[in-house]
Amino acid sequence: MKIVLLTGANGFIGRHCIQPLLSNGAEVHAVDIRIPNEKKEDVKWHQVDLLDSEQVLKLMANVKPTHLLHCAWFTEPSKYWTSLENIWWVQTSLGLLHAFALYGGQRVVMAGTCAEYDWRYGYCSEMFTPLAPASLYGICKHSLQLMLMAFSKQAGLSAAWGRLFFLYGPYEHPYRLISSVVCALLRGEPARCSHGNQIRDFLYVQDVADAFVALLESGVSGTVNIASGCPIVIKEVIYQIAGKLGRRDLIQLGALPNDENEPNLLMADVSRLSNEVDWQPKYNLDTGLEQTIDWWKKHLV
């Protein structure tokens, strides 16, 4: 039986990874600094501060996982792009990787970001698009990716890097784009947005989690984009949400300034995900938005 250590298990992506891991027959050890009040009985939870190396070593010695799915990172909106926390998480992730190998780990998958790419190219292929991260967040993630691959080669680990694009869904931070629009409209408040002409690649969070689990289960190595491969203009997404809630009158495009460094197009080449991992999404944008809206109707305070 696979013994999977899942970090960030109470986070936006991690919590959605638990059920597909269980469905694949894994023994799941869920790690987070905050343990949820409601949790599945067949999951073993560990309240651990991953920034504490002694706690990490003790965790690895007790669990001795065969597989590691590392989703934990500093992700506070508007802060994570430039926060020095990124530096600490590189160090933490390397310590986690070393301890995983020390106690007999076999395969590791870590979460990367499309911010590793040179955004001037727009279309992002793992094989061809240059990597030139412009933010501290992107630089730290890409540095970790390089070290993960070098370490794994020397240590004899099987390793992959899931490079994330744009996601949305239940439990997303309310300040993120899609959740902020949904929340504003449910409250009957104006949804203030930028011009919305940017083209992005969105994937529903449960699909994101399923893709990570499929990547972990596969023998695919190296970097794999985690995305839909179906770009859409942001204002079309915004108006889809407004149409579902009957509040197109509350959409205010151009009310917020546009970031001059933000590219017009960011989309993923998902051929590795489709052909090598053999994975396809279960949700399209319409069904994903429906699920997201339904969740916020129940949880909006």
The profile of the biggest β sheet is:
7 strands, parallel
Number of strands: 14
Enumerate the strands of the largest sheet in spatial order, edge to edge or round the barrel.
3-2-1-4-5-7-11
Helix content: 25-40%
Write the layout of secondary structure elements.
Blueprint: E1 3-7, H1 14-23, E2 27-32, E3 44-47, H2 53-63, E4 67-70, H3 85-102, E5 107-113, E6 123-124, H4 136-155, E7 158-164, E8 166-168, H5 177-187, E9 191-192, E10 199-204, H6 205-217, E11 222-226, E12 231-233, H7 234-245, E13 251-252, E14 267-268, H8 271-276, H9 285-299
Concise synopsis of the structure shown:
The chain has 301 residues and is α/β, with parallel strands linked by helices. It is 39% helix and 19% strand. It has 2 domains: 3-167 and 202-228 and 267-282, Rossmann fold, CATH 3.40.50.720; 169-199 and 231-266 and 288-299, UDP-galactose 4-epimerase, domain 1.
Task: Offer a few descriptive terms.
single chain, 301 residues, alpha/beta, Rossmann fold, UDP-galactose 4-epimerase, domain 1, 2 domains, 3-stranded mixed β-sheet, 9 helices, globular
Structural notes for this entry:
The structure is a single chain. The strands form four sheets. The protein has a seven-stranded parallel beta sheet with strand order 3-2-1-4-5-7-11, with helices on both faces. It is of the alpha/beta class. The longest helix has 20 residues, at 136-155. It is built from nine helices and 14 strands. The protein has two domains: 3-167 and 202-228 and 267-282, Rossmann fold (3-Layer(aba) Sandwich); 169-199 and 231-266 and 288-299, UDP-galactose 4-epimerase, domain 1 (Alpha-Beta Complex). Helix 2 (53-63) runs parallel beside helix 3 (85-102) and helix 7 (234-245) packs across helix 9. It has helices at residues 14-23, 53-63, 85-102, 136-155, 177-187, 205-217, 234-245, 271-276, 285-299; strands spanning 3-7, 27-32, 44-47, 67-70, 107-113, 123-124, 158-164, 166-168, 191-192, 199-204, 222-226, 231-233, 251-252, 267-268. The model has no long low-confidence stretch (mean pLDDT 96). Helix content is 39%, strand content 19%.
